[in-house]
Specification:
The chain is built from 13 helices and 12 strands. The protein is α/β, with parallel strands linked by helices. The structure holds magnesium ion (MG). Its cofactor is Mg(2+).
Length: about 350
């Protein structure tokens, strides 16, 4: 996993912190692209975020409008929003216009495929005890019976009232997904996530139309256009955009607007430190994924209470980089002149 951070400062002393990331390969590429396009921001008004997003996109136009190049833009875009909110003395959620001051959250990191069943039950119970509202399990084992056994065991262990979701991470083909979704209907799941290939919109749409259990997908998509295509196919009940992955808050808000107009529910993927704000600014209740992987990078911690994640009231994202984040920094480049 690689993180790309942008620390931005204006001549009158306002600051913004932005981030993007890559799981597996891609981090050095994002960094290189960010370093090439960064000078386009010098001398600009940081309030004009949408204009600057376009300018950064044009600076790397031949690299395309999705994927790695826009993910590099994402770090600048988040920093510009952080700066604007901090300058206004508002949390990012308040700057955007929040509907609520906390979001429903669920735990992902206790239920990976390789986690033995006994440990899975211990992790799930501990997570609920800690105040994290829902539990997500990975499914998609080569042995389908094992998936069913594990979901059944967790449902029994936690009782009927705990929200439970499963995530197949694109492991099934269409006939398998049909069978598994049918079997999983009995467990009253909040959703079944990525049952099929992330770009198989027709397949996801057929599942969404066939079963009561909502279908969730969208985390792998990397642009507004890709999400628009998914929405037009009615391939998801829960849309799962990931702000850094789609190029920042500017594209995320455009996706959220389309999702809202289509009557979809929203469950942003990963980066809870950012998505807690974006989830609070969506019209209907969202689920934000509790993932503690990024915690060592920041001095602040999110407060979890009664199944919900509290939106920080500190200005901007409410985040500052930790000493640990600086110690782990491998490459760094500076542009402009310090005020
Ligand atoms: Mg997932």
């Amino acid at each position: 996993m690689a993180m790309l951070f942008v620390e931005m400062q204006t001549h009158d002393g306002h600051e913004g912190l932005g981030l993007s990331y890559s799981k597996r390969a891609g981090g050095p590429g994002q960094f290189a692209h960010a370093a090439e396009i960064a000078p386009a921001l010098l001398g600009e008004d940081p309030s004009d975020i949408a204009k600057l997003w376009n300018k950064l996109c044009w600076a790397g136009a031949s690299a395309g409008r999705s994927g790695l190049s826009t993910q590099a833009i994402g770090a600048f875009d988040v920093a510009l929003y952080d700066l604007k909110a901090r300058r206004a003395g508002l949390s990012l959620a308040k700057l955007l216009g929040a509907y609520r001051d906390s979001v429903a959250c669920y735990n992902t990191s206790g239920g990976f495929l390789h986690t033995p069943l006994e440990q899975l039950l211990v992790n799930a119970a501990a997570s609920v005890e800690r105040g994290i509202g829902g539990i997500k399990l990975k499914v998609g084992q080569p042995d389908r019976a094992l998936d069913i056994e594990r979901v059944e065991a967790v449902r029994k262990h936690l009782g009927d009232h705990v929200p439970l979701m499963v995530d197949a991470n694109q492991q099934w083909d269409r006939p398998t997904a049909q069978r598994m979704c049918r079997i999983f209907e009995q467990f009253n799941l909040v959703w079944i996530e990525e049952p099929l290939d992330a770009y198989d919109h027709e397949g996801h749409a057929a599942l969404a139309a066939s079963f009561d259990t909502p279908i969730a997908t969208g985390e792998m998509l990397t642009s507004v256009m890709e999400h628009g295509d998914l929405i037009r196919h009615r391939a998801a009940d829960y849309l799962m955009p990931d702000a850094p992955r789609v190029g920042g808050i500017t594209p995320f808000l455009r996706i959220a607007g389309q999702a809202e107009a289509a009557g979809l529910m929203l469950a942003p993927h990963f980066a809870m430190e950012l998505h807690v704000h974006l989830g609070a600014a969506y019209a209907t209740e969202t689920w934000v994924e509790h993932f503690d992987w990024l915690e060592p990078l920041f001095n602040e911690r999110l407060e979890i209470k009664d199944g919900r994640m509290i939106v920080p009231t500190r200005p901007g994202l409410g985040l500052s980089l930790s000493e640990q984040a600086r110690a782990w920094t491998r490459e760094k480049v500076e542009f402009g002149t310090r005020p």
